């Protein structure tokens, strides 16, 4: 699985002109599932993201996790993260998990992140979403879970 993680002051998802999710201080996670991923990969990545220290402490150092900082997570499915752009000008989505499996892994990730104690909001899987955010820092990380 691949996750593009952004520390945000706020983030939201709009579908068909309606706000379906929004958070304040926390992390926006764009999540892509690869065809070789399974539920254990989703669970491990969720636990890992609940513990990474990307939030500032009182001294301005990145020493706090989302759990320590009391932040929220907004998780958005993002199959385009899995694109292969190594040849030509058009992305190949061959590495991405098929939609049914990707949805199952997305849901497993969200549930595992919630089970770890992080308040989780979600986008709408497979929908045409408009994502708004105010990146804090900016702080952005690409995180992958070894298989």
Helices and strands, with pairings:
Layout: E1 2-15, E2 18-23, E3 26-32, H1 39-51, E4 55-56, E5 62-64, H2 66-69, E6 72-77, H3 99-115, E7 120-122, E8 129-144
Any overview of this molecule?
Helix 1 runs parallel beside helix 3. The chain has one domain: D-tyrosyl-trna(Tyr) Deacylase, Chain: A (3-Layer(bba) Sandwich), CATH 3.50.80. It has about 150 residues and is α/β, with parallel strands linked by helices. The model has no long low-confidence stretch (mean pLDDT about 95). Strands 1, 2, 3, 6, 7 and 8 form a six-stranded mixed β-sheet that branches. A two-stranded antiparallel ribbon has the order 4-5. The protein is globular and about 45 Å long. The protein contains three helices and eight strands.
Keywords:
147 residues, alpha/beta, D-tyrosyl-trna(Tyr) Deacylase, Chain: A, six-stranded mixed sheet, 3 helices
Mean pLDDT over the full residue set: 96
CATH topology: D-tyrosyl-trna(Tyr) Deacylase, Chain: A
Q: Report the count of strand segments.
A: 8
Q: Kindly, what is the distance between the CA atoms of the first and last residues, rounded to a whole number of angstroms?
A: 9 Å
Instruction: Let me know the CATH homologous superfamily.
Output: D-tyrosyl-tRNA(Tyr) deacylase
- Largest beta-sheet characterization: 6 strands, mixed
Helices and strands: which structural class?
A: alpha/beta
Stretches where pLDDT is under 50 for at least 5 consecutive residues are none
Quick overview:
Helix 1 runs parallel beside helix 3 (99-115).
């Amino acid at each position: 699985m691949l996750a593009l993680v952004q520390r945000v002051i706020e983030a939201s998802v709009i579908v068909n002109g309606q706000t379906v999710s929004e958070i304040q201080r926390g992390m926006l996670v764009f999540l892509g599932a690869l065809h070789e991923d399974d539920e254990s990969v989703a669970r491990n990545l969720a636990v890992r993201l609940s513990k990474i220290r990307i939030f500032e402490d009182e001294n301005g150092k990145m020493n706090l996790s989302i759990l320590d900082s009391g932040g929220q997570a907004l998780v958005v499915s993002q199959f385009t993260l899995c694109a292969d752009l190594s040849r030509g000008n058009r992305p190949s989505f061959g590495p991405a998990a098929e939609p049914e499996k990707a949805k199952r892994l997305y849901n497993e990730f969200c549930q595992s992140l919630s089970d770890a104690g992080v308040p989780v909001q979600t986008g709408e899987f497979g929908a045409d979403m408009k994502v708004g955010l105010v990146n804090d820092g900016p702080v952005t990380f690409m995180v992958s879970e070894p298989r």
